[in-house]
Amino acid sequence: MSTVGGGRALIVVDVQNDFCPGGSLAVERGDEVVAPLNRLIEEFLERGEPVYKSRDWHPPRTKHFADHGGTWPVHCVQGTRGAEFHPALRDDPRVHVISKGLGDEDCYSAFDGTTLGEDLRRRGVREVWVGGLATDYCVKNTVLDALREGFRVRALSDAMRAVNLRPGDDLRALEEMRAAGAEIVDESRE
To answer: Is 20 a catalytic residue?
Structure first.
């Protein structure tokens, strides 16, 4: 049982246009995470529990992009439409936006190079719920970092989708999160 304003937080990972169908690094069916995440955003805000939305916020030139020695095509460049949150994802002034990937580092996790861990502890958060894009990269790394930071974690399997560069990356990511101590839940079945 959670108290108002403390105990739990929701972390919505990288539900941005470039990661959704039609984007430069589209995750298949990535837009399907919007509806379950919107329900949770509403529930958390109604209870006064913090909600965070992380976003890739890359400069135009970064070693993260294949053009400059990295792995990925250009995506989520600061100030572009591709970097904007999916238009159907609930927006609210009470939602905290976390920007990551501001330099040459990959920054897959919402904790990478941000003050998210400190902010969660300051708010008395002990448990985080995590969903978004993509299961096998930014969601997985956010979950693993949250566990390393000492938080209990519920990874929302119905509210995440995978890149699957290699078939089965999604299942391997879920197993890695579970093995590290995350609870894998499907909120649509609870």
So the answer is: no
* Catalytic (active site) residue 138: yes
pLDDT at 2 over 70: no
pLDDT tens, position by position, 87-121: 999 999 999 999 999 988 889 999 999 999 999 99
Q: Which two tokens stand for residue 45?
A: 């805000």
Q: What are phi and psi of 92, to 5 degrees?
A: -165, 140
What single string gives the DSSP state of each residue in 74-102? S--BTTSGGGSBPTTS---TTSEEEEE--
User: pLDDT per residue over 17-70, tens digit each?
Assistant: 999 999 999 999 999 999 999 999 999 999 999 999 999 999 998 888 888 887
Catalytic residue among 138, 140, 145, 170: 138
18, 100, 106, 170: which is the annotated catalytic residue? Answer: 100
What beta strand segments (E) does the chain contain?
A: 7-13, 51-56, 96-100, 125-133, 152-161, 183-185
- HSE at residue 161, side-chain half, CA atoms within 13 A, is 20
Spatial CA neighbour of 101 closest among 125, 81, 72: 72
Catalytic residue list contains 145? no
**Catalytic choice (14, 56, 106, 112):** 14
